[in-house]
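User: I'm putting together a teaching handout on how sequence relates to shape, and I'd like one worked example. Could you take Histidine phosphatase family protein from Curtobacterium citreum, show the sequence you're using, and then write out its predicted structure as tokens right after it?

Assistant: Happy to. First the sequence, then the structure tokens directly below it.
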Amino acid sequence: MRLLLIRHGQTPANVDGVLDAAVPGPGLTDLGQQQAAALPGALADRGIERLFVSSMVRTQVTAAPLAAALGLEPVVLDGLREIEAGDTQGKRDRVSVQLYISTVHGWSAGDRASRMPGGESGEEFFARYEGAIRQVEATGVAVAAVVSHGAAIRTWASAVAQNTPDEFGTKRNLENTGIVELEGSTADGWRLVDWEGEPVGGDELVDRTAQDPTGERF
């Protein structure tokens, strides 16, 4: 299977650097809407057969233009949601951001038993995310697109891709509507095909002033 993991478009929390993993969460900014609108043109030739989103509003709004263009009905999988922020939810101060990032970084380095303070453990995150991916695989399609979240995509993809170091994703940016492309399966293993860290619409859809903590290198 070819799996396209697409980060959602920009949200107000991304602009302000706020840690926001609450469900259902906010929608998109005007720029986020433009980023979402660029997806159909950018992905028209990828052969996408099914489209999946998380239980968070921002992924569903991001997927809407692509779904309309492809004539697909997005399937909501709760396991694709962002890594829980726990005690750091709604915060933007340096200590809180570093706590969130260091916890996620630890999971990427292999310490999955550690827990986000007030939130889920690495083991719990990987179990629910991989469970969602297995549901995607169960459809039997050759190419699937998943609209998910910055920290979740980077943490899971870098851990399962056999041709990258476990911490690869922590050293790469993933801007809003950036895409991580994998090939393979849960049973046989995944291989990184491409890491497109910039928005699919090009430089004009990049907000260099945003304080987004989950899109930058950890």
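A couple of points you could highlight for students: The mean pLDDT is 94. The chain has seven helices and six strands.
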